[in-house]
Amino acid sequence: MDLMARHDTLMFFMVCLVWTTCSAAPMQCHFSSQALCEYDGKQYSMGESWMEQGCVQCTCLHPVGVGCCETVHRPVDFPPWCEVRVESLTCQVMLVMTSDPRLPCIPGEDNNVDPRHGALNMKLEG
Please, are residues 105 and 112 in contact by the beta-carbon 8 Å criterion? Predict the structure, then answer.
């Protein structure tokens, strides 16, 4: 591997490291020295990027391989009755109610009571 290829590989991993440590949850990155700079029938050149299914952005590091990272920042601190949904076309992250994914889940607001234990808007008077 020549010096330029090593430099590019090192830069890719440094960018991934900074990118993943600044997010709510560590994003997954991987590198493949066997992968080709090709996706969906299109060839890519050194430094070019493309978006794969599942909100994964890949970069061609020819001749050393391909590096890919998730682009979605997934929340990690939310109530157990909420779940994370990712819109595959827009890569938009939504926190929704597990019992009814059509409803948003907003931790810390009026729905901070587990819905299995009664109405969400129930206030205790004392």
Answer: no
Give the pair of three-digit tokens for residue 84: 């994370």
72 residue type, one letter: V
Q: By C-alpha distance, which of 32, 36, 66, 9 is closest to 57?
A: 66
Full-model pTM: 0.54
CA atoms within 13 A on the CB side of 122: 9
Residue 109 has what pLDDT? 58
Q: How many Cα atoms are found within 13 Å in the side-chain-facing hemisphere of 112? A: 7
Task: Say if residues 58 and 49 touch (Cβ distance below 8 Å).
Answer: yes
β-bridge pairing 42-43 and 38-39: antiparallel
